[in-house]
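Hey forum,

I'm writing up a methods section and want to include a predicted complex as supplementary material. The small molecule is zinc ion. I've pasted the protein sequence and the SMILES. Can someone with a working setup run it? I'll credit the forum in the acknowledgements.
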Amino acid sequence: MRAATVAVVAVGLALALALGVDQGFDTTSITILVLIALVGALAIAAAGKFEGQRVAPARCAECNGVISPNAPYCKHCGERQSDRF
Ligand SMILES: [Zn+2]
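Reply by user p_vandermeer:
Happy to help. Structure tokens for the complex are below, copy them as they are.
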């Protein structure tokens, strides 16, 4: 996820750079470059934050089935996951 975001930002920067080199850097191309760099930095930061917050799936204490860590009940056997609350 984060690697993909970095790749997209890198491609965007490379394209903007290539366009600037090709057509000459003017205010517009430099503005676009700065915007891509800013948005890219934000996207990478957001992706890293999102990954840090991602939680592994939990397992039901009763049937050991994989369930959402926030699920109040097990979707497999219906056992209440009260120990999490
Ligand atoms: Zn269960």
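Some notes you might quote in the supplement: Residues 60, 62-63, 65, 74, 76-77, 79 surround zinc ion (CB under 6 Å). The two ends are 30 Å apart (CA to CA).
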